[in-house]
RNA sequence: GGCUGCGUAGCAAAAUGGUUAUGCAGUGGCCUGCAAAGCCAUCUACGGCGGUUCGAUUCCGCCCGCAGCCUCCA
């Protein structure tokens, strides 16, 4: 039985879909004006893992993740770079898809763009105006009147009085209440704009998600996810907009993932302390990043450091070492491991525990290999299968073990093979000093030799 | 200031009212020409103070420390 921590209730709740066997999942995606950083990677990997697990559990899933391709920052960046809006956004959408593929993130079922949802957005704003939940300010912008929505603040546990007390942003005089937020923004000169009943302009940030999610998944759907920082005000505003417009319960379960941190501080664009996915990929294999992300629970903070990435690499090395030279055949999946794995994932997607099951499997597999037990294939099949649910250990073991890219200058494989042959000859001649020297020299260059029982040697990169 | 959440062994990271997490590192053993890998065994814990309880790392309260949101942010 799957349990999900619901931000709305701040409790783990038994997941019960609106429609038996079906799940609608909406996740707030990227604003595409720059490359994805590790924080974005976390959202992608976390919800990809959630999506994979829903499908494995037999649900018919519709996974929607939007792209914000119109926004102040995008406009500014396009101006700075002297390119058109779409030139900029298309470039970063492609870059995002590249990063996703690298991280084994499967594409969502629907990936709506804000600029392609303008009619839906306008229609929703019109309803909000008609219901007197929105108004046109002095400057022509359309605002949502926060005080008119009775449950405002329920998701983030805030109330309007507290929010006003803590108000620390410049008051926009066009608003009736400083907490009101913009639904439609009038265009300034040279800004991309769409016609609307209120004039040429563009949508505010929050309304696009309300429009796209309800259009793709219905007025009511099961799960809405995103980073912790979106809880307030973004998701709070989405609820106000959607429920205000439709009169129906917007979302049943809200899932928020924790931040990636650097030195105990949130990784973010504004702090400038971020690493892009493509930067990190120069130093670590993509699977290492994915493992690193899954090694902590999705709601916990995740500290980014070379030490942590190296730990992830060593951990994956252990799993691949167990799989090395093994074939899964047509073996069945071990039911006990499968049950333990499912129990972990059913508990609010507890990937650290799910991973620990994989390590227990690896240990038994190693022992089975040594004992030449008939269980080997079953254990291999199980490790591959359960790893696959997390999007890891699907590659060839030797490919992973031999392709360390830690120090850039990788020693040529042919050269390594030559050295190994020389060493085998030295071993045959019982010239241990020479054999050891060759091995030590290779070790210096990050190549570790491992002699096998059949008198040969295999190798891997450190 | 208001509202969240967190504080676990050398590091990372889970669960749990009484019993093994797991990975890396350490120690002892097996294996090996010696290693590496692997296997077996093993040492390091639950921020502080009170309370509830037969029993608390786990529940409650207070304190200390850290992070996040309250402004664009995944």
Topology at a glance:
Blueprint: E1 3-6, E2 11-14, E3 22-27, H1 38-56, E4 60-65, H2 72-81, H3 85-102, H4 118-130, E5 134-136, E6 142-144, H5 160-165, E7 181-186, E8 201-203, H6 205-217, E9 221-227, H7 231-246, E10 251-257, E11 260-262, E12 265-266, H8 277-281, H9 286-294, E13 302-303, H10 306-323, H11 335-346, H12 351-371, H13 376-390, H14 397-402, H15 413-428, H16 432-444, E14 447-451, E15 457-461
Parallel strand pairs: 3-4, 3-9, 9-10, 11-13
Antiparallel strand pairs: 1-2, 5-6, 6-7, 7-8, 11-12, 14-15
Helix pairs in contact: 2-3, 4-6, 4-7, 6-7, 9-10, 10-12, 11-12, 12-13, 15-16
This protein binds one RNA strand of 74 nucleotides through helix 1, helix 5, helix 7, strand 12 and helix 10.
Tell me about this structure:
With 462 residues, the chain is of the alpha/beta class. The chain is 45% helix and 14% strand. Strand 11 and strand 12 (265-266) form a beta hairpin. The protein is elongated and about 90 Å long. The chain starts with a strand and ends with a strand. The model has no long low-confidence stretch (mean pLDDT 94). It binds one RNA strand of 74 nucleotides through helix 1, helix 5, helix 7, strand 12 and helix 10.
